[in-house]
Fold this sequence. Notes:
This protein has ten helices and 13 strands. It is an alpha/beta fold.
Amino acid sequence: MKNWKKITGLALTAALALSLLTACGGNQEDGGKRLDEIKEKGVFTIATSPDFAPSEFVDSSKTGQDQYVGFDMTLARYLAEELGVELDIQAMSFDACQTAVSMGAVDAAISGFAPSDDRKENYELSIPYRASINEIDQTLLVRKSDVDKYTKPEDFDGLDIGCQNASLQYQLVTEQLPNAKPYIIGDLGVGALELQSGNIEALAVAYGNGVQICENNPDLTLCAWHFDYQSIGQVVLMAKGETKLAEAINEALAKAEEAGKYPEWYAQAMEDAKSANAIEVSIPDEE
């Protein structure tokens, strides 16, 4: 597994400068050079955080690039094929995925990213893709023994709610449970353990991921209350100004949707996530 090193304070400053530059147009007036560079190298490099089954996780029976599986990873391999290049998957933390795009360390990030105003401002976003349609898109996990305690927002007042930093779930917790206390977790596997141990009272998750976690942890269950949110799908993140790459990605995504590939990929991802070899791996930032 390739470990992407923690971005230092100096690098973060550089990333911010790059973000500001590209946001103002910078050298991207021609639609960016990234697509040409990808085709010249013959490699499409993406960042992902493999701790989010069934979207992205690890098959422990495999090694190298093959170990990264899930809906998003199938999607990434499809995009590379459509671009006519090889795929290079770089595993890193969820936060680092976004910074790596801003710094130009990767071509794109594919890790269950929801479109948001902040991301639209700072990145090029693909058209949305949606793995499956669920009536409830964003919800909470609670201990099965406590399920009757949590039926309305007020029931979470003053309580610690686990969520990943810079995630859609963090946004929903702060907006819709304003009297709760967001509790930042590194990955959802750790979040499930924190919930089981009583360190937090709920864990904010995407519905499909929540179902998968409950299957592997029968003492946890979906909360009766859920966030008021209807997903339009996930997006691929690219550096601001890389419109030619975004156009190529969008063309491939539209082709996949028209061919009806998403349900097939999602069904396979759900099946793979049930395997004893399926694990969610957190890639820690190095100190």
